[in-house]
Structure formats: structure tokens, C-alpha cells
Specification:
The chain crosses the membrane at residues 274-295. It is built from 16 helices and 25 strands. By secondary structure, the chain is an alpha+beta fold. The chain is globular, with a radius of gyration of 28 Å.
Length: 630
Amino acid sequence: MFTLNVSLILVLVFSTQIISTDGDKSFNCQICEGNRTNAYSKNLNSILSVITSNTTEIDNGFYNFSLGQEPNKAYVIAICRRDLSLANCRSNIYGSASNFQEICLSSNESVGYYNSEMMFRYSYKPILDIRDSKLNCTYIGPWPAPEPYIEKLRQKSTNLLSGLIKKAAAGNSRDKSAAGSVNVSASLSVYAITMCSPDLSPSYCFTCLEGALKTLQICCSMRQGPSIYIPGCLIETENYPFLNLATWNSIPPSPLIPFTPPIPHRRRSKPGRGIYIVIGVVSVLLVTASLFLYFSRRTKQNKQEIEKNNDQVICMDFKQFDFSAVQAATHNFSNTKRLGIESSARVYKGMLPGGQEIAVKMLLKIDKDIKRKFDNEVLLLTNLQHRNLVKLLGFCVQQDLMLLIYEFLPNESLDKFLLHDTAKRANLNWETRYNVIQGIARGLSYLHDDSLLRVIHRDLKPSNILLDVDMKPKISNFIKATHVHEDQTRGASSTIKGTCWYMPPEYGQQGQFSVKSDVFSFGVLLLEIICGQMIGCFSEGEHGVNLLSYAWSKWSEGTALDVVDPTLDRIESHKTQMLRCIKIAMLCVQENPTHRPTIAAVIYMLNNDMITIEEPSKPAHVIYSTMTWI
């Protein structure tokens, strides 16, 4: 015997026309993932068998089934559209369970979108109130937008969906859905529905739908009727009235039981305990705010102290190394310990007495600009901590020398693998390169969106990508980086900082930089990793075609795989992923910065091969110059 739990919660949105309910339907999107264990398979099949037997009491639109014990417990949920009749909802659920039994025979998790009338999902892990975007589909309508109305359609659709997203997120545990329409022209309208699963919090519902909208804007802004389905939320649009809005708005939410996570009796709050919790939370917030203000002021004072005194640096968060200790660690900065040299810096390998390996960057204190660069690196890395950023251990100042001490990364920088070193390139198989690409993107996303300071790197290139012992990338060299306000994404500079090959035209020509400047650099870097050559050394044909022009010509001719490094093996088996990366790179190097994706969108495109990516246009003309860049 077994127990089947059914939690009755809510009716939800899923759109399109009412379909037949004969139990023999196909999903317009169905994904099967993973492999089942025997115990899990038994629990799941038992649930599906009970559902298809038509004996389960199904009397509202959101269903939660579970059976078994961890780690082989099976979870199943089903969500029906709010305007769907009870009979149709039941029939769809029965048909879905039967469909999954036949198609996803060995998968341990799956999701199906049943012609948008409902969603059916099962998993080996809890599903409710879980943030998950792995199993998703994007549908691009077959109708291109009429040329005269493309911009108007984009604007009207965005405004409509933005309003519906807020309305859905503002719902309650009984209904998080919204539907509406807007006229674009006399012959063109947009009809749309947004939905969140009722167990999600309002804030995550909003986040999920906002992410879905951004994806649609990237992939499908020139199409009518695009839709995206994500576990937990969806957006669907059409160019015809697939749903009677008058009927939709006239249907009140069903009297369903709100979803409340079960709480064991022994852990329930005692009377009055909530007051203490509130007081505790408020106290923590006050202390945190006070500490933040204190550290902010101290950081500002530190910066002023650096300006006043060339021989002393005071910093709370990093260790100030003794010069003699650094000198001993690097064998008095011996040439045998030198890792690299730049115009204003040298990098040495060292070892501290405890055996810790370090990398020491020596800045020659020649002028105030060098001192500002040192100051900038310390102040930025005080506030930046991420697995894909190099870790600053401390610093040291000694007369005319300024030293920055970092963690040592044994595989040095990416350019060592791409620059005239076939032996090292052999270590960069496609799996490693793809992991490097993803790691760089994650580090850049942290700088742009998730760190305490919004940082624009302004010098993203292979020599500033370091590789640890496991070939995981870490972005380094923040001397030329700049931080902007949280709500600021761009700026301007009278002094151009960076490397010409990686600069977008708006920065190299006009001094205008933004987060999209880093995206451009990332696109160049992505192409370099794919082709195995650095842009400054790449030359194709007697006229010396540059890397971006070469990649674009091959993409346009349908022979984009010619761009791939010929030293890679099993190219054919990675063909789809390689072509996807080339396409993303082409989007990143578009001339107009507004046409480039954000780095968050890049990560989404890299990790979701079910979505269709917008076609790129001709890339920007790269600035090649003999002038010296700072």
C-alpha cells in the first residue's frame, strides 16, 4: 500500500485555443532529462497509474502529487489554465500522465506544455517553491513582423507584457496570472498571457517573468506570436484572439486552498515569538547599515590617505605585506621568477614561508597616473569576491615601488595558450574552452549586475584571463576598470583606456563606454577561444582579413565551422554548440551597442540550447591603430 498526497492550490494560466480532450494529444513542448533509478521509477509509475485510472479526485486547477521516501521520492505537479472547464482539466491531466508513461520511459525529470492549456511535470526532487529554469522551451512564431511596424510592435508588446508581469506577480496564492491585448495597427494586434506558479513568491514570480521577457526580446523581437515556457512561469503571445478576454476577466478565482508549506508541530512559533524575530531582523539590518556606512567612510579615507602619503597605504580588508618578505619570496625579484612584463608593471612568482605560492605585480611609481591605477585596483578588489575573479591577497608600498600580491594561478594567462603555442593549445579541448567561456561570462555578470559595485572592466582580453590548476578562468587586472552607480550602465572618458583590438567603436572613437563595451570585448574573446588565435595575430588571405570580418563572411556563407580551431578533435560532435557560440559572439560585436545582448542574456543563451537566438548583422569595424593606448 502507498499514500498519494494531493495538495489543492490554484488555477493558473496557460494559453491558446481550447483543444480536444480525448486523452491522446501531443505536447507542443516536451522535455525529458536524466535517468531513473528502479525505486524512483516504481514510485513515479505508481503515481501516473493512479492519475490515469480516473479515480483521483481532481476538482481544481493545481495539483501536487508525491510518493515514496527520499532519495527515491517522486513528485508530480499539474497546472490547468484558469478558464479551462473542470472536465477538460481532468481529461488533460489524465492524458498527460498517459503520454509521459509512453514517451519519457527512463527520465527522472520531465516537463510538458500541453498546447498551453496546462503544464505537467515530474521530478526526483521537490518541485514546489523551487527556482528552476533548466527545463524550458521558446517558441518563435512563424509570422515575421511587418517591416513598417517592427519598432512599434516591439514597443507595444514590451509595454503590454511589462504591465501583465506586474499584475501577475501582484497576485496571491490563489492566482498569479494576467491576460490582455493591445492594438499595434488597424490590422495587427498582440494578445498575451503571463503566468506564475502559485507557490512562488511574488518577487521570484516577477524575476522569472522579467527574465522570460528579456529572452523574448533577444530572440524574437522581429516575430509575431513568440512564447516562452519555464518551470514556474510562462509568457505566451499571439497575433489573434486565442483567448476570450471578456470571458477570462469574468471568471473569478476558484475557492482553492492557499499553498502553505507544511511545518512540523515541534517547530511552530510560540505566541509572541514573531515579535522577537522582527526585533532581531531590524537590529541586524541597523547594525549592517551602520557597518556599511562605517566601511564606506573608511574606504574613502583610505583613498585620501593614499593620495597624501606615497609611502603608506592603510587598508582594513587586505594584508599589508612587509617589503622584505615579498623580496625574499621572489628571490629579490629575480628574472627567473618573472612571469610577465608590461609597460608599467612586472609580474613575479613567489613563495611565502608557509609554502603559499603568490603572484606579485610590481608597479613602477613613475607618476600620479600609476598611483591612481594602484589605488583603483585595491579599492575595487576590496569589494569584489567571486570564483571567476582573481583574488587579491594584499599589497606593499616601498619608496618608488608599489606591489600587488595575488593568489598564484599555475596555468598563467589565456594568451599563453592562444599565442604561437600549439603544444599548449592541445590542452584546450572543446570542453575546456566551453567551460572557460562560461566562467568568463559568469565573472563579467558578477561585475555588471551582482557585485556591491557595478564595475566596467574596460580591458577584457586573453592576457587578463588567468587559469587555475583546473583550467577555471579568473578575470584579472582591474587597473583600468571603473565603477559606476548601481543604476548607471554607461559613462564617458576623455582618456581612452584599454587595448585597441577589443574596443567597440563608440569607445575608441568617442570615449563612450558602458557594460556593452565589455560585452563587445567578450565577443572578440569568444571568437579567439573558438578559432585558437588572438585577433592581433590573425590574418587570412593576401589582404589580411581581420578575425571579425573573417568570422562574419564564413557565417554569411553558411560555413561558420571554418572558423573553428583545426587542432580541435571531434568537431562534428560539438558542431551545434560551436555554431551557437559563434552566433553569440557575432551578436556581442554588433556595431550598435543597443543591439548587443547583456552578459546575463549571453549566459542564458549559452546554457539554454532550446531557445532560438536572433540572427546577427554585420559586426562593427574594429579600430586598428598604431597609436599608443593607455
